[in-house]
Amino acid sequence: MTGAQETWAYHKYWVMGHSQAHYNALRLLFKGDAWSAEKESELHRLLAEAGTIAPTGATQRTAFQHMWGYFKKIANEEEREAYKEMIADEASYADLTEFLVQMITNYQPKYLVNSKFYEDEGF
Asked: 30: domain range?
């Protein structure tokens, strides 16, 4: 994995939680051509810009659902029920963030352990 790919992997769910448009732009940036100085500059510009956008319920929900994909097959019934209740209750996003951080701590999926979401404990 290149430095740019590692940077993107680290920021992926954090960006998704801030801006779907920036997430999509970054995904497209990594398609196709070889990496260049221009792409590197665009990567950092988009990450900085995404950080200025406040997360919304919709962007957070999307990020939560994607992160839950790492746990849906390994979570126990109690964890599955807790997730279902929290994702249905939009007012509990702070609780859902805490829940997912605890799931990452417990199950240690490498991709999420090494993410900005986990390091910063949320968006």
From this structure: 3-50
Looking at every residue in the chain, the average pLDDT score rounds to 94
Domain count, the chain: 2
Burial 84-95 (b: 16+ CB within 10 A, else e): eebbeeeeebee
Contact 6, 33 (CB under 8 A): no
Contact predicate 67/100, CB 8 Å: yes
pLDDT of residue 1: 67
Place of tokens 């996003």: 93
Contact 36, 14 (CB under 8 A): no
C-alpha R_g of the chain: 15
Residues of the chain scoring pLDDT < 70 = 1, 91
Query: pTM to 2 decimals?
Result: 0.91
Q: What pLDDT, on a 0 to 100 scale, did the predictor assign at position 2?
A: 84
Polymer length in residues for the chain: 123
Report the C-alpha gap between 10 and 2 in whole angstroms: 12
